Amino acid sequence: MELPIQSDGAGRCPQFIVDDAQPADMPAVQAIYAPYVLQGLATFEELPPDLVEMARRREAVLDLGLPYLVARQGGSVIGYCYAGLYGSRSAFRYCLEDSIYVNARCHGRGVGRALLQALIARCGQGPWRQMVAVVGHSGNTGSIALHASLGFERMGALRSVGFKLGQWVDIVLMQRSLGQGDASCPCGSGM
Q1: pLDDT at residue 67 in the model
Q2: Are strands 95-102 and 153-164 parallel, antiparallel or unpaired?
């Protein structure tokens, strides 16, 4: 499904807003994500999740008290992002992982930056202390540059940990502090 995106005549995405994702946004979110799954290396999923699964994932994020955001241009969702726990073990409870996807026709137009800035700000208000980006494909220079521009440091890469679209795929690990980071003990934060 192709999303209708208005143009300002110069190929740019005009004004957009970042907002909390609503249940009605999930068909557009699914439509944005499916090409990344089927044709890209940013995600290691190989079969696009159906709408029921995408809605379940949103609810799981919200149940953790974490943000799930969309960028809207007019009536259209042109990108989305969310935070999830980095790992399932209890010691990871203060560490989040971000995920961000933007409609391909709006790459390089500030949509991803606005989404990630809002996500960092929202997560920084909670008890979480670190955010990790697991960037699929070491050649994903756009995502790597976006994360670096917002304070993520490259921590390393895992070589050939995925095999997708007939090729071995790396992941790049990036990290930034949230709030006080590791400057203090999170004890007493209720987690």
Answers
A1: 98
A2: unpaired
Please enumerate in sequence order all residues whose Cβ is within 8 A of that of 101, keeping only pairs 6 or more positions apart, or say none. Answer: 32, 33, 36, 42, 79, 80, 81
pLDDT of residue 45: 97
Question: Could you give the CA distance from residue 54 to residue 49 in angstroms, rounded to a whole number?
Answer: 6
- Integer distance in angstroms from the first to the last C-alpha of the chain? 41
Q: What is the CA radius of gyration of the chain?
A: 17
Q: What angle do CA 125, 131, 137 make, to 5 degrees?
A: 145
CB neighbourhood size of 134 (10 A): 15
pLDDT tens figures, 52-65: 999 999 999 999 99
Q: Give the C-alpha separation, 180 to 105, whole Å.
A: 37
Find tokens 């007019």 and name the residue.
74
Q: Say what the pTM is.
A: 0.90
